[in-house]
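quick one, 130 residues, struct below
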Amino acid sequence: MTIDFNLDTLNYVLYAIAYLTTLLAFAMKSIYWLRLLTIISSFFYSAYYYSAPQEPMWINIWTEGLLVGVNLVMLVIIWYQNSTIKFSEYEQELYETLFHDLLSPFEYLKLIRIAKFSHYKKRLFFNAPK
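---
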């Protein structure tokens, strides 16, 4: 069995990769990976929109470009928020043991700003407001 690799086949492959990448992006728990995979899928969609029809579908290519731009800006914001955060020793230990898989460092910072650390019988407790 041979595959006749022509432009139509390439277009099907581009669209399939774009679609599967989009599905994979929606399966991510991390907003970072969701945005990164959305950017990758947008590049494949743009290549498909350029090569599949008789004329390039410029409106679709431009909207994919805008989607890439928004996601890139948000990735930079997420990176900046997470890179500028400094925790105390207690806060860092609590984050690593309990919250690392649940919250980003920025989300955890917002939580500890409204919570209160207290000692009870020489043990540290984390009290969130009711």
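The mean pLDDT is 85.
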